[in-house]
Amino acid sequence: VEEMDSHPMVSSLLNKLANYTNLSQGAHEHEEADENEGPKKKTVKSPQMGTFMGVYLPCLQNILGVILFLRLTWIVGTAGILQSLVIVGMCCSCTMLTAISMSAIATNGVVPAGGSYYMISRSLGPEFGGAVGLCFYLGTTFAGSMYILGTIEILLTYIVPKAAIFVAEHKEDEVDALLNNMRVYGTCCLVLMAIVVFVGVKYVNKLALVFLACVILSILAIYAGVIKTIFEPPDFPVCLLGNRTLQNHAFDLCMKTEVKDNLTVTTKLWSLFCDGPDLNATCNDYFASNIVTEIQGIPGLISGAISENMWPEYGPHGMLVEKNNVTSFEGSDPAKDIYLPYVVNDITTFFTLLVGIYFPSVTGIMAGSNRSGDLRDAQKSIPIGTILAIATTSFIYISSVVLFGACIEGVLLRDKFGDSVKGNLVIGTLSWPSPWVIVIGSFFSCCGAGLQSLTGAPRLLQAIARDGIVPFLQVFGHGKANGEPTWALLLTAGICEIGILIASLDSVAPILSMFFLMCYMFVNLACAVQTLLRTPNWRPRFKYYHWALSFLGMSLCIAIMFISSWYYALVAMVIAGCIYKYIEYRGAEKEWGDGIRGLSLNAARYALLRLEDAPPHTKNWRPQLLVLLNLDSDQRVKHPRLLSFTTQLKAGKGLTIVGNVFEGTYLTKEEEAKKAEQNIKSAMAAERTKGFCHVVVSSDLRDGVSHLIQSAGLGGMKHNSVLMSWPGTWRQSNDPTSWRNFIETIRETTAAHQALLVAKNVDSFPTNQDCLGEGTIDVWWVVHDGGMLMLLPFLLRQHKVWRKCKMRIFTVAQMDDNSIQMKKDLQMFLYHLRLDAAVEVVEMHDNDISAFTYEKTLVMEQRSQMLKQMHLSRTEREREIQSITDESRSSIRRKNQGATETVNLSQQASTMEDTQEDEAQLIHDKNTASYAAANDKPDVGPDRVHMTWTKDKLLTERNRSREPNTNMAVRDLFSMKPNQSNVRRMHTAVKLNEVVVNKSQGAHLVLLNMPGPPKNRGGDENYMEFLEVLLEGLNRVLLVRGGGREVITIYS
């Protein structure tokens, strides 16, 4: 019964789903919003658009556009039929592949109104969604400016050339004059369109059909004209001088002279090339030596023009448009040609440029999916409608390329503005019944497309703003009372104006290609990622997709981006990347169950499985920390400085697990555990600790900690070091469990072969904002524990807090040691470790220090042995100078087939002194030893404890090892009565503390070896006292206990 409240009945759920309408909340069509302002709210009629009206026609209308009418003939003439087919084929296959991917995404679940943006953001996650949404928005906005420029170009060049404000005095200024006219008129047009959009979107939607009719009529007129050229080609003469095409605005007769009343008089053409109308005037060389011929601009479909137009004619800016197979004589002064009425290239042409200019004519495939809210059955209509529309337009483009090449003379094709045919639109000259059909048709279609871009783009921006993933766009989510995006419209108009100020259609087109290509690339990526990951939720209705197709589509998109203009491509990618990163850092946390999250999961799993193989090499060893935090009664973190210390130590690298144990049962403490986890996470965020949080509820604190130490982490991502704070109040509390737990934790880490770091006075540690000035980090290297003591200061100094600190290493020598030699050896060792540190050797009495080696495994032999080896093998560098075997870490006793075999360090050392050859062997053994250091050793008689080796000691030891009673000599140290040994130990602690305080009182941080706890648990309290005495008077201390393996190496 309880579950019924939170989980609804199946029947009611099904009922809700059946009545689901596709209009997302707040995205009602705006006409409805207008009509519904009255008190009674009429029921929303379910949208009823089929595939043809709802998807096919809008796509068709959006795809066919300005480029087809204004630039396709010029592209065919410049690139030749074959390369034009390559361009068209590449762009069309790119959009077709994208449409297939898009269909798969669109049919995978219900697509709310908002189209492509919603599809991508819901399947690729908010970061990609935002980046793509904004790319698509910028693309649509620039498309608006391209259509407006197209509209103005048609108006000023072909409809009312007289309306130009800037008129070129000289021919060479014509291009600039045209661009300035475009800027002025374009801005006026943009303002008008924006006002129309602001006042009444519904009129734009009503007019959509009119605009569509214009486009279709224009295309039919072209096909009709092509058929008519077979019987009688239209009469559009082109005048050639030699092989150069002439602009025939200023003359009618294509002759140099004509006969009037039996007199030979010069024509208007003559006066253009000569300095007077007289027959004996001085004329331009080229004009004098070449004849004037007239050819038909449109020879007709079966005239064989197709063979001439097969090949490309690229050239630089200002290149004359010439007919290749006509003979001509070169003039003497080509520099003056720019002042004469020749038809010239207005921009430098090359293949890749044409790709960028052509691509916008295949964009617009999203129009159907953007209307997903109005469709009767979006899942069925979007794929069929979009793919059919792309197939239709591809057919139109490919046939147009071939037909233009076959019907129109090459020089006319390359004449961008139709100057050689009295300023007619080139594609217009081909159409039937009159060029005006196409001029007017294309004018209206450009107007309509511009208006639609200006209505579509602000809606898209509003949708992105309302999603709340890009914080600085919030303002654009607001609008008029009926939801019209006013602010978004203003921004759109502003960006549009940038495009209009660029003013040249050929410069705006590549920009817009970039943004659309980015968008299509992401659609393909989304489909490919989902398919390859086999996300459980990925089951599109549309079955004819494949990841390879999506991948091919994606590659094509990237290829076309870089082909058409590599620098724009880089800029577009940088913009998308910046948006992505911005959303990642600042954006709202949105969990849309996206594919990218699945991708990270897969990658993480793969990496973890690879890590499992082997333990890390010494070179790769870094502390992977398990931080044991204490919480107070309100579940707040007691020592946040522990977390900042973690951050400083890790600098974001490696693994950090922050653990905490709750006493109780999980069923009763679940809420508190959740709260604790939240608090720890927020504390980690505040201290910038990157890592994972792990709260365990356990009936016993000790067991909980033990479970954490055993089981935290996953696979190869396990911790190898434990960081905890010193129980500062252990003396005050009556409850002995606090310090007992602490000591047990030390034992557990030792058993688990993990390193242990204990921070004393942790609350006085620096925060991440502090920057410690000049000072030192002091390392007291009493026993060798695998080099943790050396590595930690090095890692700390990577962080800005500790960067200015210097490292000092203190080592303890006994009276009979050669301390000068020891210092040299240590400096050499540090030099090989590539660590910068000052070295100091402190001398102490034998009996002052001996009890420091509380536990019998970690003796100082280890350290001295190491230095000694450095010393020994200076002559033979090639031998490994690594470290002493783990076997020799102590006098390890092992059971060996029931017999107890003693491996004595002294014996090893003696053999080393005798035969240096064994040295390498000994080192290579270092990993073969058992790690069973402290725990599994049977107590067979007292162990020997030795301080640093010297030659004399070694000899006496060697002799003694031949006597039967080997261990007698040092037995007294460990067979003392407990209180005696306690006194000894306290004495050691006091002495060592004196030395440390004397040297390191002012240090920013002191690192010390941590002696292990005693074997028998009776001495635990004494052990705590021992540590307290040892650390008295020091401010920040880090006690370090190695994990039983080498962590630092002198090898590269």
Overall outline: elongated
Class per helix and strand makeup: alpha/beta
* Percent of sequence in beta strands: 5-15%
Radius of gyration: 43 Å
Low-confidence stretches: 19-43, 853-862, 872-951, 960-978
Strand order of the largest sheet: 8-7-6-9-10-17-16-11-12-13
Largest sheet: 10 strands, mixed
Number of strands: 17
Q: How much helical structure, as a percent, in the residues?
A: 40-55%
Q: Termini separation (Å)?
A: 67 Å
Number of helices: 37
In round numbers, the mean pLDDT is: 77
Walk me through this protein's architecture.
With 1052 residues, the protein is α/β, with parallel strands linked by helices. It is 51% helix and 9% strand. The chain contains 37 helices and 17 strands. Strands 8-7-6-9-10-17-16-11-12-13 form a 10-stranded mixed β-sheet, sandwiched between helices. Helix 24 links the parallel strand 6 and strand 7. Residues 19-43, 853-862, 872-951 and 960-978 have low confidence and may be disordered.
List keywords for this structure.
single chain; 1052 residues; alpha/beta; 3-stranded antiparallel β-sheet; 37 helices; 51% helix; transport; glycoprotein; chloride; Solute carrier family 12 member 7b
Describe the secondary-structure layout.
Layout: H1 2-6, H2 10-18, H3 30-35, H4 51-63, H5 66-70, H6 72-106, H7 115-159, H8 174-199, H9 201-231, E1 237-241, E2 244-245, E3 257-260, E4 263-266, H10 268-273, H11 285-289, E5 292-296, H12 305-308, H13 351-358, H14 367-370, H15 378-407, H16 410-413, H17 426-430, H18 435-467, H19 486-502, H20 505-533, H21 547-564, H22 566-586, H23 595-611, E6 625-628, H24 640-650, E7 656-663, H25 666-686, E8 692-698, H26 701-711, E9 721-725, H27 737-751, E10 755-760, E11 775-781, H28 788-796, E12 805-814, H29 819-833, E13 838-844, H30 846-849, H31 861-872, E14 893-896, E15 899-902, H32 905-914, H33 918-924, H34 951-960, H35 971-974, H36 978-1000, E16 1005-1009, H37 1020-1031, E17 1037-1041
Parallel strand pairs: 6-7, 6-9, 7-8, 9-10, 11-12, 11-16, 12-13, 16-17
Antiparallel strand pairs: 1-2, 1-5, 3-4, 10-17, 14-15
Helix pairs in contact: 4-15, 6-13, 6-15, 6-20, 6-21, 7-8, 7-18, 7-19, 7-20, 7-22, 8-18, 8-19, 9-18, 13-20, 13-21, 18-19, 20-21, 20-22, 20-23, 21-22, 26-27, 29-31, 32-34, 36-37
